[in-house]
Amino acid sequence: MQITKVIGCILIILSSTLMGFYCSNELKSRINDIKELRKLIILLRGDIRYGSTPLPEAINTIARRHEGSFKGFLIKVSDKLSEHSGNTFSQIWKAAVEKELLQTSLNKKDKSHLIQFGENLGYLDKEMQMNTLELFLTQIEEEINELSKTAKEKSYLYNTLGIMAGIFISIILI
């Protein structure tokens, strides 16, 4: 009887510790995903500004040469734009964000900002597209800076809380 309690306590502490490490890793993954998104927006801005490439072609170009967690998203947007199905750019963008970015670490706030970005980007002329891209890049930079400042403390907090929660639950069950 005593051995099962000990094994149960070890399993509880182990699982809660792993949960803390998982939350810590998700925070780091979110920062990396936002940095990757920033890189894609910079590439998109460069294609539009310096190459005078139309938005659908610029997205297609980036989709073909990009490897990462946003590749499926970019390919989906590019394919839907080339179909000429009658949907607006913002509708295509929103559907792709909702369906293709499920496997990323972006949270609901990040995805809603990305949807809003797509709504503002699709129907504007080149100069307004550039302004929209610059505004979104500024928002991403602020988000990265804010997350980077607190990431170390939050990671430590998640790890510690995971361990302490397991110990606390084990003590209560004994």
What tags apply to this protein structure?
174 residues; mainly alpha; 6 helices
Describe this entry's structure for a reader.
It is a single chain. The chain has helices at 2-51, 55-65, 71-83, 89-100, 108-121, 126-173. The model has no long low-confidence stretch (mean pLDDT 87). Helix 1 (2-51) runs antiparallel to helix 6, helix 2 (55-65) runs antiparallel to helix 3 and helix 4 runs antiparallel to helix 5 (108-121). With 174 residues, the chain is an all-alpha fold. The longest helix has 50 residues, at 2-51. The protein contains 6 helices and no strands. It has one domain (2-173). The chain is elongated.
Write the layout of secondary structure elements.
Layout: H1 2-51, H2 55-65, H3 71-83, H4 89-100, H5 108-121, H6 126-173
Helix pairs in contact: 1-2, 1-6, 2-3, 3-4, 4-5, 5-6
Summary of the model, kept short:
The chain is an all-alpha fold. It has helices spanning 2-51, 55-65, 71-83, 89-100, 108-121, 126-173.
Low-confidence stretches: none
Q: Supply the helix-strand structural class.
A: mainly alpha
Task: Please state the oligomeric state of the protein chains shown.
Answer: single chain
Instruction: Say how many strands there are.
Output: 0
Distance between the termini: 12 Å
Along the chain, the helix and strand elements come as HHHHHH
Number of helical stretches of at least 4 residues: 6
Helical residues, percent = over 70%
Give the percentage of residues in beta strands. Answer: under 5%
**What is the domain tally?**
1
